[in-house]
Amino acid sequence: MQEKIKKAAELIKNSRFCIVFSGAGISVESGIPPFRGENGLWNTYDPSFLDISQFMSYPIESWKLVKEIFYDFFGEAKPNKAHQAIAELEKAGFIQKVITQNIDNLHTEAGSKDVLEFHGSSKELVCTNCAARYSKTIVNEQEVPLCNQCHALLKPDFVFFGEAIPEPAGSDSFAAGMKSDVVVVIGTTGEVMPACNIPYYAKQNGAKVIEINPEKSNYTTQITDIFLQGKATEMMERLYHEIIQT
Ligand code: APR
Question: Which of 38, 83, 153, 159 counts the highest number of beta carbons within 10 A?
Fold first, then answer.
């Protein structure tokens, strides 16, 4: 494994435009379960409560689950050493951009500055009618949060199934993928379109792909050049020290 860490560190150190593409797995060691696989949320909850049509039709039931999972349960999660290593590598000039599928805001909280939230963020709520924005603290005040300007339903500012990818995050993410010469893919099954296409486009454009995951993903046998099989915190810490100390 150390040989692979060294090779990955060399790629990153000599890269022109290195990006990170992260998924739920990077936040598992912050206490946030993944969606799929062992302990996956979709093993317990039916993801249909995150369909935008179901949310709008059954707001009471949907908001109960949204609050339970994304605010009560996830709410206290803190960035882990993987998020922190990525922020340090950005500060040192080795990582240019983070594209994340996650809505937990942990990359930003860890200090990463250039973060593209492809699926939005749970940080704020937005009015489904007039687009007014609210702090997430309102979820503790109202069971079904309503806009105090137009009285319409509020929703978390992340992408529900059936909703469009937010702009400019969507276009900027694909542009960064196309510009990158090294992509570090961390903690994602690579199953959800259109986000999962970004590493493929980067590879088609000549990028080298470094993947960190305890399990194989859709990428591993198709486009991964260096597979660092392991947990995000352990692999990112070893990678960080190899880059900074040599
Ligand atoms: N370190 C790194 N990776 C891990 C760890 C860990 N400690 N633990 C689990 N993983 C890996 C799993 O092996 C799996 O490949 O993280 C991945 C989690 O996969 P998913 O739960 O499918 O998460 P993700 O790929 O981000 O899902 C994409 O699906 O439901 C939608 O919008 C949601 O953004 C999400 C999208």
Answer: 83
Known catalytic residue at 241: no
What's the 192 CA to ligand 1 centre distance in angstroms?
10
Residue ranges lining ligand 1, Cβ < 6 Å: 23-26, 28-29, 34-37, 40, 101, 119, 187-189, 191-192, 212-215, 217, 231-232
Q: Which atom of ligand 1 is nearest to the CA of 101?
A: 34
* Boundaries of every domain in the chain: 1-31+79-119+165-246, 33-76+121-158
Query: Are 37 and 44 within 8 A, CB to CB?
Result: no
**Strands 115-117 and 18-22, sheet pairing:** unpaired
Q: What is the CATH number of domain 1-31+79-119+165-246?
A: 3.40.50.1220
Give the homologous superfamily in CATH for domain 33-76+121-158: SIR2/SIRT2 'Small Domain' (3.30.1600.10)
pTM: 0.96
Residue 233, token pair as written in the block: 């915190």
Distance of alpha carbon 195 from alpha carbon 190, whole angstroms = 8
- How large is the angle between the packed helices 81-91 and 232-245, nearest 10 degrees? 30
Name the helix (H) or strand (E) containing 70.
none
